[in-house]
Amino acid sequence: ASWHAHLMGEKWWYVCGYLLDGSQQCYEDYLVPGETLYYGKHWYHETQNIVTPTMTITDTVAHADNFESIADQLHATCARNKHTFDFSANLCDALQTCYEYWHEVYEGKPLPEGKWAHWRSVAGEAQVAKREKTEPHHNNYDGRNYITE
């Protein structure tokens, strides 16, 4: 599940997924500043910037039903470059605290030993070195907004 709060410009969205009755549904719309789009798990989207520059704040909603999947994907990206996102070492270190927090909040107990072991202990030396060299301005995941720079 994700949400997108539109701040600037105009963006076309095409979102598809499955309804509770199992039928597939697609929606098409334009977001303008002040509007927020939300779509649930297993929905996918395509976008196009219509009026630029365009700026959207977006995030994935972590909850009891999906936090493990989110943590698995983020941990694999930090430790093994699963999705080839250029996360920095600082971001991966910060994400490590999220896994512990989510597990305690959603499972009601501390993170078991070995579950999402610190990414630095799982990654090879080359992966750690790559993450250490990555600066926030090298990607759009450490807080950089390349649209307005």
First CA to last CA: what distance? Answer: 29 Å
- What is the arithmetic mean of pLDDT? 86
**Helices and strands: which structural class?**
alpha+beta
Binned, the helix content reads 25-40%
Proportion of residues in β-strands: 25-35%
Order of helices and strands: EEEEHHHH
Tally of helical runs: 4
Largest sheet: 4 strands, antiparallel
Q: How many beta-strand segments?
A: 4
**Which geometry do the CA atoms define?**
globular
| Oligomeric nature of the chains | single chain
How large is the radius of gyration? 18 Å
Uncertain residue ranges = 144-149
Question: How would you sum up this structure, described in words?
Answer:
The chain has 149 residues and is of the alpha+beta class. It is built from 4 helices and 4 strands, in the order E-E-E-E-H-H-H-H. Helix 1 (67-80) packs antiparallel against helix 2. It is globular. The protein starts with a strand and ends in a 16-residue tail after the last helix. Mean pLDDT is 86; it is low at 144-149.
